[in-house]
Structure prediction request, 193 residues.
Amino acid sequence: ILISESAVPAWLLKASVDRKFILASEKDLHCTDQDVEKYFAESGIANIGKEEVHQLDEVCGHRAGYLHRAAQLLLEGESAQELLGGRLFQEFLNYCDYCIIPNWDRPLQDFLMKVSCVDSFDEELAATITGSSVTPQRLLEAREAGSFLKKEGKIYRIDADMLAGLRQRAHRELGAEVMHQCEYNAGLYYEEE
Prediction:
C-alpha cells in the first residue's frame, strides 16, 4: 500500500502500469462535516457547534492531518474562533515551512522559494525568475513531491498554505535581497509581454 498526495513519481510509473495500482484521488480522502463531527466527539471535543465544525473543515481543506492538528489545539484550550481567526493558517504555514519543505532537495527548495514571489507562473516565467536552465525538471520534481502544485493549461499555482510557507522560508533562508531580485526578474518578464 502506497499512500501519497503526489502524482505517481517517474521511478514508480512502470510498476504502476504493470501491477494495476488503485489510485485514490486527494478528494477521495477528504473528510465530510459528519466525519469531522464524529472525530471531534470521539476526541473529547464537545463544545463546538456544527457551523464551527463546517468552517474548520473548510479552512483545513477537508484534510485529515490538518483537522487532527485543529483537534489538538482545541483540546489544548484554544477556541474555534481563535483557530478560524488565523491561528490555524499559521500552523499550516509553519508545518509547510519546518516539516515539509526541508525534506526536499536543496535545489528544489531554492527554485520553489524563488517562484513563490508570484501567485502563478508558466514555465518561461519560472525560468526568468530563478535563472534556472532546468526549469522543466524542477517543475516535475515539485509535482512528484506533493499535491501542492496545480497546473491548468500552461499555468502553475501553488496551494495557498504551501505558498505562504515558501514565502516565509524564502525571506528567512534566501533573504530580502534575493527575493527582491526575483520580483525584479518577474517584472522584467511582464514588461516584455
Q: What stands out?
A: Strands lie at 120-121, 149-152, 155-158.
